[in-house]
């Protein structure tokens, strides 16, 4: 026993060093697998508060850029509304008349124009959030911290999009802050091409925050430079969110497949506002999928 | 200012500079010319470099771990900074013993800097430890040796900026005030 104590005292520094290294390695592995709530992360309240204060100051320098991005998004949304509601097409020379359906089965309808029927409820609810911290220089995982948390309805595994395209997926949530794994990470995005080619996989290559790679597109599919790449509804992202446009097509001779270098439509260097997508059907979808995944007895 | 206050103050200041200024640099750096990867310059290892010479090893290890974990929380890197910092602190004594003529206990209340060590030994000491720190940091972060060139580019680029910070610090704070802590005499 005495010898043991002497041994510990002699190698005390080495033992302390090893203990601390093991603790840090445990923290690293915990951070990498995206599960569980981390104390050592930017979604904890102290760090989130600091970043929010910093962002409040820097915010004013970026107002011009932010105005531009909001204006373009407004324009895009106006177009989308116009397409859905078939009104508000003043800019076009053709005048469109709202489509109303006469529903004769409803006895109590006084309105001779017919009763407006809701065909489908909105599946997605968008929670706007401000980016208070953002990283692009890490090589495996890049995180974004946003100023909305559990008290605003943000939950783990929700998709995050910007006005221009995909951003990422919520990893940790505290009361007022959430940490998002951005698409600049080694996480695959299920994606498709505008001609309907689905089941493609898009992944980020470290080194550049501007490009991702859509892998293993069969050679018989015609892809031109400038084509868009969208998300599918298979994973956590909503369907038809823009990932980016094809910047370069690399044909690989060996495997008869093409790799598409895709320029991200979201500019991660100047990300200001994002939307957390609350999928109302998400839980149901997950439950059904989990049930079918179980072995049948 | 006492030696403790001075180091606590330095800790807070370096964390703030690292987190609020330097972490934002790759975002504003608009293009990456010829595929040069964006990277974050590091200034916070300076805290471990300039802790007093007579600091016991266990305190070095604990304070470096605290520093690393603080930076990790802000940069969302899990424990990579902590691991690199602890390793750097562990080898600090060995590098100092190799470079200094006298035993470390014979330098009471003195920090390693250009005043106490001279330019060449101090820069060698900083370069060796910073190289160790950056190498470990990027090896754990990238976690593959398939692209050695990429790893080396990142390590060297970060080392150049870190050394620039060390030189800048030496030039700015090389007054006699910083070399010895008078109130402890």
UniProtKB/TrEMBL annotation, chain A:
It comes from the Bacteria. One of its GO terms (biological process) is regulation of cell shape. GO terms for cellular component: plasma membrane. The chain crosses the membrane at residues 12-29. Keywords: Cell shape, Membrane, Transmembrane, Transmembrane helix. The keyword Nucleotide-binding does not apply. Residues 131-277 form the Rod shape-determining protein MreC beta-barrel core domain. Belongs to the MreC family. This is Cell shape-determining protein MreC. It comes from Taibaiella chishuiensis. The lineage of its organism: Bacteria, Pseudomonadati, Bacteroidota, Chitinophagia, Chitinophagales.
UniProtKB/TrEMBL annotation, chain B:
It comes from the Bacteria. The chain crosses the membrane at residues 12-31, 43-67, 79-99, 119-139, 151-172. Keywords: Membrane, Transmembrane, Transmembrane helix. This is Rod shape-determining protein MreD. It comes from Taibaiella chishuiensis.
């Amino acid at each position: 026993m005495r010898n043991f104590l002497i041994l510990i005292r002699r190698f005390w520094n080495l033992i302390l060093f090893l203990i601390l290294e093991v603790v840090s390695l445990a923290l690293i592995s915990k951070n990498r697998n995206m599960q569980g709530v981390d104390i050592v992360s930017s979604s904890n309240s102290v760090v989130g508060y600091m970043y929010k204060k910093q962002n409040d100051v820097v915010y004013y320098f970026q107002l011009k850029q932010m105005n531009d991005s909001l204006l373009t998004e407004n324009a895009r949304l106006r177009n989308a509304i116009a397409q859905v509601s078939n009104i508000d097409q003043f800019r076009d020379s053709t005048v469109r008349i709202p489509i109303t359906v006469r529903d004769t089965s409803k006895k109590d309808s006084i309105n001779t124009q017919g009763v407006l029927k809701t065909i489908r409820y909105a599946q997605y609810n968008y929670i706007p959030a401000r980016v208070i911290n953002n990283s692009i220089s890490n090589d495996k995982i890049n995180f974004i911290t946003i100023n909305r948390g559990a008290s605003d309805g943000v939950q783990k595994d929700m998709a995050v999009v910007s006005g221009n395209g995909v951003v990422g997926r919520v990893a940790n949530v505290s009361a007022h802050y959430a940490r998002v794994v951005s698409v600049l990470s080694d996480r695959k995005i299920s994606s498709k091409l505008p001609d309907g080619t689905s089941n493609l996989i898009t992944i980020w290559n470290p080194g550049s925050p501007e490009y991702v790679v859509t892998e293993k597109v069969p050679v018989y599919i015609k892809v031109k430079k400038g084509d868009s790449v969208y998300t599918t509804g298979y994973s956590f992202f909503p369907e038809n969110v823009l990932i980016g446009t094809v910047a370069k097509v690399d044909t690989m001779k060996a495997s008869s497949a093409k790799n598409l270098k895709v320029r991200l439509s979201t500019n991660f260097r100047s990300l200001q506002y994002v939307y957390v997508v609350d999928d109302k059907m998400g839980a149901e979808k997950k439950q059904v999928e989990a049930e079918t995944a179980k072995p049948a007895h | 200012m006492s030696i403790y206050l001075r180091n606590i103050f330095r800790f807070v200041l370096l964390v703030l500079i690292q987190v609020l200024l330097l972490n934002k640099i790759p975002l504003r750096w608009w293009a990456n010319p010829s595929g040069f990867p964006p990277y974050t310059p590091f200034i916070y290892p300076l805290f471990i470099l300039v802790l007093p010479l007579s600091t016991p090893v266990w305190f070095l290890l604990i304070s470096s771990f605290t520093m690393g974990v603080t930076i990790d929380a802000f940069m969302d890197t899990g424990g990579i900074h902590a691991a690199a910092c602890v390793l750097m602190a562990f080898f600090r004594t060995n590098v100092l013993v190799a470079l200094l003529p006298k035993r470390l206990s014979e330098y009471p209340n003195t920090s390693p800097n250009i005043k106490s060590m001279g330019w060449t030994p101090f820069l060698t000491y900083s370069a060796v430890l910073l190289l160790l720190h950056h190498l470990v940091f990027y090896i754990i972060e990238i976690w593959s040796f398939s692209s050695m060139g990429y790893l080396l580019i990142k390590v060297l680029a970060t080392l150049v900026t870190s050394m620039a910070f060390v030189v800048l610090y030496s030039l700015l704070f090389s007054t006699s005030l910083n070399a010895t802590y008078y109130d402890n005499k």
